[in-house]
TrEMBL record:
The lineage of its organism: Eukaryota, Sar, Alveolata, Ciliophora, Intramacronucleata. One of its GO terms (biological process) is protein histidyl modification to diphthamide. CDD domains: AANH_PF0828-like (cd01994). InterPro entries: Diphthami_syn_dom, DPH6/MJ0570. This is Diphthine--ammonia ligase. Pfam families: Diphthami_syn_2. It comes from Paramecium octaurelia.
Amino acid sequence: MKFLALVSGGKDSIFNVIRCIQEGHELVLLVNLYPKNIGKEADSFMYQSVGTNIIDAISLAIDKPILKREILGKPKVTNLDYQSNQEEREGDEVEDLFEVLKEALTLYPDIKGVSSGAIASTYQKLRVEDCCQRLGLISLAYLWNQDQFNLLGQMLQNNMNIILIKVAAIGLSEQHLGKSIQEVYEHFKYIHEKFGFHPCGEGGEFESLVLDCPLYKKRIQINESEVVCHENNSVAPVYYLLIKSYSLIEKD
C-alpha cells in the first residue's frame, strides 16, 4: 500500500520506513511534528524535539516531500485509554497528529498506511492507532515489541549511520553526544546490565539522528553544533546537540 511516514530523523522512525519498504509498501510522504522552539528540547510524551530543525535534510536525503506541523497541544490525557476520553482530548498534543494526518489525506488521498517507530511505548502506539482509526488508515509498526538489542543489530546490518543527539541516563554524558551507535554499542550493553538501560532509548535515555542509510540518496554531514545542558543534576544530567549547520553530500 501507499503510506506516509511519521519521522523525527531518529533511528526508529527511519528504520520502520525501511521495514515498510522491505514489506513491499510504497513511501509517498514524510510527516513531522515539531515544537515551538524547533530543534531544542521540549517536554512531550509523543514526539522527539531535538534535531527537528534539520528535518528538511531528511526529506532531501530521502528525496520525498514532507508535511510539517507545529505542536500546539499539550499532553492532557495521560492515561493509556485515549480513545474513551473524547471530551478531555481537545487541546491534547495528539490532536495535532490527527490534524496533520487529515491534511495529508487531502493532499494524497491514495495513502492507506501510517509508518511509526513505536517499539515499546503503548502510550504512543495506541495514540497513533487512534488517529489512524478515525481516518480509516492502517498503522504500520514493524518494530513493535521486538528485542531492543536485536533491533539495534538489524539497524547496523542495514548500514545505518546513527548518532546520539540527546542523553538523559545514568552512564551517559555529554561526551557521548555525536557518537555513533557502533561506537557506544558495547557501552550500552554495560549500562544495560548495571542500570537496566533500554538500548533503544525507550525509557527516554537518549535520542538519535540518522546521518545515512540505504534509504538516503544523499548523506547528512553536520558542520557545526553546540552542546546544550538542558538539566544539570548529579544523577542523570540531560544534554543535547543543537545542530547549527549541515550539508548534504552526494553518495558514491
